[in-house]
């Protein structure tokens, strides 16, 4: 179970300190989910840590400026802090986003539908129905192309499907949205490795090491790459720095 799912369980149990611990750690590891930051902000707000909550909601909105729930939560905290003009502006922004967008759905509805398609994709992937999983992730991204967590899930499913080129393209887009994202860099290196692009794999994993030097999975990938290079009679992969 991932950090966000665990955090949602702790939130339902009203263990707000547990939520904060889980999601702060996840953010430090480079997980850029707006949902996680919104939940972090709610937990901080419920513990009376309003300024920290406000910062978390703002980070969520930096990742997804159309996130109505985060806009509303931010406006409520601003109101509680006595920043009335900013609160009114936030409520107005949320109201405007309630109108249909280019998909034909209000932002909150479009977000929910995209997340529902992604959740269904997760279920199909867990069941081994990779074609159905990919189709659901792609439908989700038609609604919300900027949801990097869904694009990462699509990249994983395409790797499982052995469509390494398509996986690499999706992971490149995820990294364009969130440069330095650990999971995306690790998977991008794996996509390159499976395509036989050993230099590309090494470069991706070195980029991950620069930002996350304590990540234990890197040693596994580096050892795997070194064995492959030795068997191919090549030297070490270039660092990509």
Q: What do you see in this structure?
A:
- It is a single chain.
- The chain is an all-alpha fold.
- The chain folds into three domains: 3-97, Alpha Horseshoe (Serine Threonine Protein Phosphatase 5, Tetratricopeptide repeat); 104-178, Alpha Horseshoe (Serine Threonine Protein Phosphatase 5, Tetratricopeptide repeat), CATH 1.25.40; 183-241, no CATH class.
- It contains 13 helices and no strands.
Name of the CATH homologous superfamily of the largest domain = Tetratricopeptide repeat domain
Radius of gyration: 20 Å
Largest sheet: none
Structural class: mainly alpha
Q: How are the SSEs ordered, and which strands pair?
A:
Layout: H1 3-12, H2 16-28, H3 34-46, H4 50-63, H5 68-80, H6 84-97, H7 107-126, H8 130-143, H9 148-160, H10 164-177, H11 182-195, H12 198-211, H13 217-232
Helix pairs in contact: 1-2, 1-3, 2-3, 3-4, 3-5, 4-5, 5-6, 7-8, 8-9, 9-10, 9-11, 10-11, 11-12, 12-13
Key words describing this protein structure:
about 240 residues, mainly alpha, Serine Threonine Protein Phosphatase 5, Tetratricopeptide repeat, 13 helices
Summarize the structure.
This protein is mostly helical and 241 residues long.
């Amino acid at each position: 179970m991932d950090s966000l799912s665990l955090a949602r369980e702790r939130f339902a149990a009203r263990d707000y300190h547990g939520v904060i611990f889980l999601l702060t750690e996840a953010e430090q590891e480079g997980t850029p989910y707006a949902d996680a930051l919104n939940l972090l902000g709610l937990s901080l707000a419920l513990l009376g840590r309003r300024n920290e909550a406000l910062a978390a909601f703002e980070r969520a909105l930096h990742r997804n400026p159309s996130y109505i729930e985060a806009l509303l939560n931010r406006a409520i905290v601003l109101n509680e802090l006595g920043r009335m003009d900013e609160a009114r502006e936030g409520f107005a922004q949320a109201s405007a986003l309630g109108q249909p967008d280019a998909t034909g759905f209000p932002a909150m509805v479009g977000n929910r539908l995209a997340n529902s398609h992604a959740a269904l994709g997760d279920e199909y992937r867990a069941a081994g129905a990779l074609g159905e999983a990919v189709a659901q992730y792609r439908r989700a991204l038609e609604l919300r192309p900027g949801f990097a967590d869904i694009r990462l899930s699509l990249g994983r499913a395409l790797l499982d499907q052995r469509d390494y080129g398509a996986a690499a393209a999706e992971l490149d887009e995820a990294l364009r949205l969130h440069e330095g994202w650990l999971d995306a860099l690790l998977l991008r290196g794996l996509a390159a490795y499976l395509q036989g692009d050993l230099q590309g794999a090494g470069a991706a994993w070195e980029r991950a090491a620069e930002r996350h030097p304590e990540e234990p999975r890197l040693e596994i990938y580096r050892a795997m790459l070194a064995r492959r290079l030795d068997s191919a009679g090549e030297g070490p992969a270039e660092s990509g720095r």
